[in-house]
Amino acid sequence: MPTIDDLLNQPGGIAERLRTLREAAGLSGKELAAAAGWAASKVSRLENGKQLPTVADLGTWVSVCGAPAVAQEELGELLSAVRDVHRDWRRRMRAGVAPVQRSYNDLVAQSTAITHFETAYVPGLLQTPAYARRVFCEMVELHGLDVDDVDAAVAARLERQRHLYDTGKQFTFLLAEPVLHWQLCPPDVMRVQLDRLMSAVDLPHVRFGILPFAAQLPITPQNAFQLYDSTAIVETITSELVCSEDESAAYARALGRLWEFAATGADAMALIAAARR
């Protein structure tokens, strides 16, 4: 099954199309970046299939290059096809767990709004080293990986957490209350992990909530998912799904409904404290 990198860089794919449009317009990468208000490195990443563009990115590129509207429509169709792809975990982690974590580091670095809705795990951005180690050890065993690089994966995940203090980004974490209670780790590890959650509640650019057991919900929180700007990613036991634009919008709408019933602030702190006890 092809990866997103494969699809971006295939002949006639988005990366090649973007490069062709720029060259036809007689623009250098630096000139296009200046006209778009981007860093020159962004143009390079998009042209070389190292970054998944947004719909807005494609619109800006087409506009700066003076290309016809049909070019944006065609690029949009290609983008939808790229986003709607399953990535098998076994194949995705053939070189180990750490490279996957580093790819998520890049995704967070490139995104302005990062959202996690979780039903089982504490979000990676809020995990302690011991909790993260437990998660990665499970992945290595579950998928029978030939490469055991748990130490490197933990380091990569912790490196990603520095973005939490970037005030230019907005983070949203909504956790179903069972996340606080699943016995995935020994009690001493879970207590430290729950303390870490408490420290995130009051960060100024972090929206944090708990979906309580007692809430009478209008929709069922069927699965966890993440949103990176307008793109949803859903992780299952066997694979990773990068959703189309329409699907991503549906996840965002569902999350909005669930937030209406979330405990926040002091109420969220009380639920965490109860679980800790």
Automatic annotation (TrEMBL):
InterPro entries (UniProt xref): Cro/C1-type_HTH, DUF5753, Lambda_DNA-bd_dom_sf
SUPFAM superfamilies: lambda repressor-like DNA-binding domains
Superkingdom, natural source: Bacteria
Domain HTH cro/C1-type: 18-72
Full protein name: Helix-turn-helix domain-containing protein
